Target: DNA-directed RNA polymerase subunit Rpo3
Amino acid sequence: MEIEVKSKDENEIVFIIRDAEVPFINAIRRIAMMEVPKIAIEDVNIVQNDSAMFNEVLAHRLGLTPLISNLDAIDGMEMADECDCEDYCPKCSVSFTLNKTGPGVIYSKDLVSTDSTIKPVYDTIPLLKLKENQNVELEAVAKIGLGKEHAKWMPTTVCAYKQYPKITFNEDSEVNYDLADVCPRNILKSDKRSKVLKVQNIENCSMCKACVRADENNYIDISFEPENFIFKIETDGSIPPEEVLSKACDVLNEKTDKFITFSKN
Model:
């Protein structure tokens, strides 16, 4: 199996996997979405809320506020269901406080964390709006969880793959230069001097087959390479995408070891 990184930034990675099978690729996708631990606000204790926003809506908005959850930030913390405390403690949680008086908009940056390494990823997420003399006071408790329990613990906003596109031409048929204008992603380019259609940026092909439907001469065929894949992971900023991929591979490896041990017994 070969892996080639095509592009990468702080929130997104796109890479090509060659010589692999669909079950393996799909296992990585599902684990990256559902079983990579992330920290998010779970419990909200509201002391006072004079705003027009209902307590339940405010709590929901706090829960979906992405928090920094990279390996350095959550190192040493325990999963909530694995901790021996009754409710929450410093070993399995981080507390945030919010105490503001209006007028003004309250942003995610106004949440004060007990751990300086775990804080909202973005400072400018609006939480609620207060009018003059209105006050909000609350404590929010963040815990580590998994995406299979709730969407707020999903580290990925996009986690998807597609099989590598394959475009072939029938040399026995007449070249249909008009197909270049049909393609919605400009994958095809007419080259009348060489009497061919050229393929450019094939990895951007969505395999919509608009060109095939417009082709009356059976000149072009769109298929895919069954063992090659284009994989994309995009996160909400809480965890770098390469960390999500690495952790997903670790989890898959642990599951494989358990299955092998089980099968031997």
